[in-house]
Amino acid sequence: MKEQLLEILEKAKNHIESTKTLNELEQFRVNYLGKKGELTVLLREMGKLSKEERPVIGKLANEVRTSIENLLEENKAVIKEKEKNARLESEVIDVTMSGKARKVGNRHPLTLVLDEIKRVFIGMGYKIAEGPEVETVYHNFDALNHPKDHPARDFSDTFYINDDILLRTQTSPVQIRVMKKTKPPIRIISPGRCFRSDEIDATHSPMFHQVEGLVIDRNITLGDLKGTLDTFAKRLFGVNTRTKFRPHYFPFTEPSGEVDVSCFKCSGEGCKICKGSGWIEILGCGMVHPEVLKECGIDPELYSGFAFGMGLDRITMLKYEIEDIRLFFENDMRFIEQF
Length: 339
Ligand code: DAH
Prior knowledge:
There is one protein chain. Helices cover 40% and strands 19% of the residues. The chain is an alpha+beta fold and 339 residues long. It has two domains: 2-90; 109-336, Bira Bifunctional Protein, Domain 2 (BirA Bifunctional Protein, domain 2, 2-Layer Sandwich). The chain contains eleven helices and nine strands. The strands form two sheets. It has a seven-stranded mixed beta sheet, with helices on both faces. It has helices at 2-17, 22-33, 38-43, 53-90, 109-123, 137-140, 173-181, 222-237, 290-295, 312-320, 333-336, and strands at 127-128, 134-136, 165-167, 186-195, 207-217, 243-250, 253-262, 279-288, 304-311. 3,4-dihydroxyphenylalanine is lined by residues 170, 172, 212, 250, 253, 284-286, 307-309.
């Protein structure tokens, strides 16, 4: 039995040299020390030995077991170290390699101008309000004092979803929503998309953008309206900009007006942009109609206010001398990348 033990040890020593992975090492362990391993099986024969032989062989058997266990441990450390080094080598990164440049997009011209408009009004203490693009006829027309036979209500001008719901034709319905849920003082602007059944051409699109403004408080006068819009025009188009208020009609304001700014290109001398007049129309405005205040639960004896609405697409076209509104919505990068 002594020879057999030494033979097993010898075999194990040879075997260990060919184990290269942790899996193979486990196989090695099973082969010798496992339940059916060679050493374990041999030791079961111990009972057959004589009393004298037993302690001698037992001692040797323990030594062989310890030797095999040591082989196993030593090799495990070596293999682990090798595997770690191989992994480190394969995961090496070259920090001197130049990176991949990511292309950063740029802002759409409509967003650029809207951001400027927002900056001016936020600077004057306004908040931003939002309303739905799919709107009720009530908010878009009735509450804004449009009589039932107002031409804008015509099916040929407005996209109706059904008799009561439409795609909003203006951002003015946001005024109604804000007045109904907020107590004065109110000072908001509300940018957003609007829709009208217009033929598409260089200056018309069935989808376009407006920025609405609304101020309600005690003692708000036409003077406040003029001062606010004049300040706005100077901040957006430059300090030398002059404004002109022309009377106009809107059902939801009384009195109503339109505002022209002196042409920022020719300063009023007359050029292609202002079509020779020296003036450019930029918005509609007026003092909020008492009927509209009443409809929203605001007492017109206590409160007054002004409102305005400007065409964002038009202002952007003027500012950047863009000649065709369709360019805004075609997503042609050659156009967008210019801003
Ligand atoms: N909603 C009007 C339009 O689409 C613009 C407008 C005019 C808005 C006067 C207003 C206003 O708030 O007071 O033509």
